[in-house]
Design goal:
alpha+beta, 3 helices, Ubiquitin-like (UB roll), five-stranded mixed β-sheet, single chain
């Protein structure tokens, strides 16, 4: 299982801040995102390829090819800007 955390506008859209998700068949960030999008509805909308979001695994920023292992904590959040 993975612990998936949602932040900011993604958390607001999904109506939850975290959930347990089974490790996808393709154990990468892309595999997880695809599995979440396959749920349809708001997941497909919020995690659409044309939307901007970032991912961290165990508090390290990763790309879509980042590997996942059972027990990982995955955070999904919109890009952060500062000034």
């Amino acid at each position: 299982m993975l612990k998936v955390l949602y932040f900011a506008s993604i958390r607001e859209a999904l109506g939850k801040d975290s959930e347990a998700v089974e490790l996808p068949a393709d154990p990468t960030v892309a595999g997880l995102i695809d599995a979440l999008r396959a749920r349809g509805g708001i997941y497909a909308e919020v995690l659409a390829a044309n939307r901007r979001w970032r991912v961290a695994v165990n508090q390290d920023m990763v790309g879509l090819d980042g590997p996942l292992q059972d027990g990982n904590e995955v955070a999904i959040f919109p890009p952060v800007t500062g000034g």
